[in-house]
Structures are given as structure tokens and as C-alpha cells.
């Protein structure tokens, strides 16, 4: 649960939705890369295996 107010700092508790950044793969990748660079921590993310048909 997260607050429903401005910047999610206060307000009635609601279930969190998915942030816009994680709904778009390119934006999520840029955010991940920037976070690694700013923190100096590298966490490789495994690529998903191709789907079998």
C-alpha cells in the first residue's frame, strides 16, 4: 500500500500501480543503466530465454 497524495507522501492508502518507467522497456533500461552508473554497483540482468513454440 502507498499513499495516494502528491508524490505519494501522504493520503489514503491505495495499491501501487506500475510506474510508467517500467512499462516501457527502453525507458526501464535507461533508468537501470543510469542507476548503475550513479551508484557504482553493477547488477547484471539475465536476458529471458526465447519462447518455445
Give structural notes.
The chain is mainly alpha-helical. It contains 2 helices and 2 strands, in the order ββαα. It has a two-stranded antiparallel sheet with strand order 1-2. The longest helix is centred in the middle third of the chain and has 15 residues. The chain is flat, with a radius of gyration of 16 Å.
Radius of gyration: 16 Å
- Beta-strand percentage? 5-15%
Strand order of the largest sheet: 1-2
Q: Overall 3D geometry?
A: flat
Task: Sum this structure up briefly.
This protein has 53 residues and is mostly helical. The protein is built from two helices and two strands; from the N terminus they run ββαα.
List the helices and strands and how they pair.
Layout: E1 2-3, E2 13-14, H1 20-23, H2 25-39
Antiparallel strand pairs: 1-2
Keywords:
about 55 residues, 2 strands, about 35% helix, flat
Amino acid at each position: 500500500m502507498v499513499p495516494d497524495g502528491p508524490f505519494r507522501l501522504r493520503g489514503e492508502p491505495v495499491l501501487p500501480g506500475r510506474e510508467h518507467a517500467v512499462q516501457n522497456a527502453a525507458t526501464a533500461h535507461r533508468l537501470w543503466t543510469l542507476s548503475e552508473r550513479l551508484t557504482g554497483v553493477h547488477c547484471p540482468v539475465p536476458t529471458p530465454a526465447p519462447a518455445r513454440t
